[in-house]
Amino acid sequence: MSKIKIFTIILLTLCTLNLSAKEYKASLFGVKSEGVTLNTKSIQKAIDFISEKGGGKLVFYVGRYLTGSFELKSNVTIELKEGAVLVATPSVYDYFGVNGTKALIVADSQQNIGIIGKGVIEGQGAAVLEQINTQIRKGYLRATATQASPALIAMNNCSNIIIDEFNLMNACGNIQSYSGCKNLTINGVTIKSTSTKGTKGLLLAGCDGVKLSNIFFETSDADISTAGTSKNISVISCKNAAGKKLQITN
To answer: pTM score, two decimals?
Structure first.
């Protein structure tokens, strides 16, 4: 067999594997969609399983999925179908963080990860903040409200990230935070978060290779904020609620 034929067979095999990436229904792992059951452990179990099996998509169909923090792992993509809503729990004790930032969805030193679809991530910002203030007032929480307020997405030292199309709503803290990440693409995302003060739409710190396109921002603070050295950032057709082009502040 010629080298050309061998190369062609290998290429076709790789393409076939890519096109047939496995999809897993969240319900198969006991994830409930009635908006009452706390699904944190079930979602994490699903992500761990898919990553260990080589990767694939964890698919959420129509429903409301209550959850605390969970960690995205390499080669796993979360797909939120239209009508699917990930709902953040109000309990401040159900969140953990990465690189000093608490968030609903976190990832640390992972690759080939993503969140896609036409669904919604609902942060319940006002309810979370009320719980934080209550715990601080009672002396149970040794942190400021700002320190305890979770973002919706926080990723650190990750690469090959795709954030595509879905809606990010009502964060308690900042909406998205990326530090030390490479090859980050955010496209077609709608961000609406004004229920709490000081909410930034997107924080970048030390990132390399960032593509932002067709993003709509409506926040109570800066659309995008940079800290540290980020480079190779492209911005295409992004705007805020006032119809102005996306702004970058230091």
So the answer is: 0.89
Q: What is the CATH number of the domain that holds 76?
A: 2.160.20.10
Distance CA 77, CA 24 (A): 10
- The dihedrals phi and psi of 146, each to the nearest 5 degrees, come to -65, -45
- 148 within some domain: yes
CA dist 51 and 63 (Å) reads 24
Please count the structural domains in the chain: 1
Nearest to 110 by CA among 178, 16, 22: 178
The residue range of the domain holding 110 is 22-249
Which DSSP category does 174 fall into? -
Cα 168 from Cα 175, distance rounded (Å): 7
Per-residue pLDDT band at 3 (split at 50, 70, 90):
very low
The pLDDT tens digits for 77-103 are 999 999 999 999 999 999 999 999 999
Rounded distance, CA 96 to CA 169, Å?
19
